[in-house]
Design a protein that fits this description.
The chain is mainly alpha-helical. It has 2 domains: about 30 residues; about 140 residues, no CATH class. The chain is built from 9 helices and 2 strands, in the order αααααββαααα. It has a two-stranded antiparallel sheet with strand order 1-2. Helix 1 runs antiparallel to helix 2 and helix 4 runs antiparallel to helix 9. The radius of gyration is 22 Å and the shape is elongated. The N and C termini lie far apart (about 50 Å).
Length: about 180
């Protein structure tokens, strides 16, 4: 039974004062299953492990992702052309932060009984994470793409690690806090 048709039937049962049939209909076709709340919990180090495990690939789209501090370096160097906003305000933040910056998502949402185990975590863009919300992949008609190969694409992580060798101490002072704050 389609969910909207079920609601229509429930309305008719309410109107005819048939609570028992309504209860049976809900329990049979559209039951509420209370999920024990589990706090979302992962560290930035865990996030980095998942990004590396997934080869900096968005597991929902297959798109390449970029190591977050790399985007921040671009914003430092091109503040007008590649702006960053600390609260991710879309009207003031370059779209790359939404399209290419990886974040962690619970493949099976916590709200639907998922857990915080690394096997249930996947790399995705901020945009896809926002769109997915608490839906399952099946509910959205999405599929889980296979992880990438970190040897083929590393999200510019090796570039970020190498760049400090060529920076002055002043430039290191500007850039390296982005890695340190990310790895905490």
């Amino acid at each position: 039974m389609h969910k909207a048709d079920l609601i229509k039937s429930l309305c008719q049962l309410v109107q005819s004062d048939d609570q028992d049939s309504g209860t049976e209909l809900i329990n049979l076709h559209y039951p509420f299953e209370k999920i024990e709340y589990v706090k979302r919990s992962y560290t930035k180090a865990m996030m980095l492990r998942v990004f590396i495990r997934d080869g900096f690939i968005d597991r929902y789209s297959g798109q390449k992702l970029i190591f977050p501090p790399v985007l921040r370096i671009l914003s430092i160097n091109f503040p007008k052309e590649f702006p960053f906003h600390p609260n991710w305000k879309m009207s003031e933040c370059h779209p790359a932060y939404w399209d290419l910056l990886p974040t962690i998502d619970h493949v099976v949402p916590i709200a639907k009984g998922g857990n915080n185990d690394e096997e249930n975590l996947g790399s995705t863009s901020m945009m896809r994470n926002s769109a997915k919300a608490n839906f399952t992949l099946e509910e959205l008609g999405w599929q889980l793409h296979k992880p990438g190969d970190i040897e083929e694409w590393d999200g510019q992580l090796s570039w970020f690690m190498d760049i400090h060798l060529f920076l002055s101490s002043f430039e290191q002072h500007l850039y390296l806090p982005h890695l340190i704050s990310f790895a905490e």
